[in-house]
Amino acid sequence: MRANPNIVVTGTPGVGKTTHCETLAERTGLRHLSVNQVVKDKGCHEGWDEEYQSWIVDEDKLLDALEDEVATGGFIIDWHACDLFPERWVDLVVVLRVDTSTLYDRLKARKYPEKKLQENLDSEIMDVLLQEARDSYDENIVVELTSNTTDEMDSNVDRIEAWIKQWKKDNPSGGDNDDGTN
Ligand code: ADP
Ligand code: MG
User: Where does ATP bind (predicted)?
Assistant: First the structure.
């Protein structure tokens, strides 16, 4: 039994995952888990893809690296995929969405190579991450939120914070240890 929930924040690169996770971590005390960082730091990859300017992720290694810690709960997981994590680890999946023109501007500002930029725009237009979330988890734990403006982000963070409070009420841990280890 976890004392704190695990929340996956997912979506196409540029939707605002990291910004949401950092704000949520500050506000709630849950830990921001940047899966990108774990891939890099713990070498969960098979090298660097020059064309896409990203790591070629080794999912088995990544799962092994995350398993023990994440199972204890209390993580806000920041990753542009979500089918990797077993259902038993995950209490809420937030899929962030943005308008195509906004995403274009954000990815352009990041100087994404043209092919990578176009593929990510297509992925957003075709609801790829939303579909992946719905295919991987119970529909009741998947929420889709828009992240075009800072106002939308503020309201998303408020909603998720309220959800965490409710989760804690519904899942009393029976201990006063709030680091998820009891
Ligand atoms: P991701 O982690 O999904 O790739 P980031 O959190 O790094 O996305 O956000 C990408 C860029 O978009 C950043 O410059 C960030 O400041 C901006 N951004 C993210 N979410 C919003 C939002 N809701 N409103 C305005 N700007 C945003
Ligand atoms: Mg990010």
Answer: 14, 16-19, 110
Q: Which two tokens stand for residue 132?
A: 């992946």
Check the CA dihedral 21-28-67-135 and report its sign. Answer: negative
Closest CA to 135 of 81, 175, 66: 81
The answer to whether ipTM exceeds 0.95 is yes
CA of 176 to the centre of ligand 2 (A): 32
Task: Write down the pTM of the prediction.
Answer: 0.94
Evaluate whether residue 175 is within a structural domain: no
List the CATH number of the domain containing 55. 3.40.50.300
Q: Is ligand 1 within 6 A of the CB of residue 18?
A: yes
Per-block average pLDDT, block size 10, for the chain (182 residues)? Answer: 94 98 97 97 96 92 93 96 89 98 98 95 98 96 98 98 96 60 46
